[in-house]
Specification:
Order of helices and strands: HHH
Helix content: 40-55%
Number of helices: 3
Number of strands: 0
Strand content: under 5%
Largest sheet: none
Structural class: mainly alpha
Distance between the termini: 29 Å
Low-confidence stretches: none
């Protein structure tokens, strides 16, 4: 289960410029569309295996393509 309690996606506690606001929105969209759907598979993998889950390389490439990974 993913925690979504108080403060979830509340945003920064200080004013942000447009670039920061856009980046935060892009990260949140990527998280919702690409990362969150893998949460249960990730939890199952790390509880039973050592090492990186096999789907992580694909997520990394998608994040890089979206400009969210350096």
């Amino acid at each position: 289960e993913v925690w979504q309690g108080p403060g979830w996606r509340r945003g920064p506690s200080h004013p942000s410029d447009e670039m920061t606001t856009d980046l935060l929105a892009a990260v949140e969209r990527f998280f919702d569309a690409e990362i969150l759907p893998h949460h249960r598979k990730w939890a199952a993998h790390v509880s039973a295996h050592k090492g990186t889950p096999p789907f992580m390389a694909d997520l990394k490439e998608k994040a890089r393509a979206a400009g969210l990974w350096n």
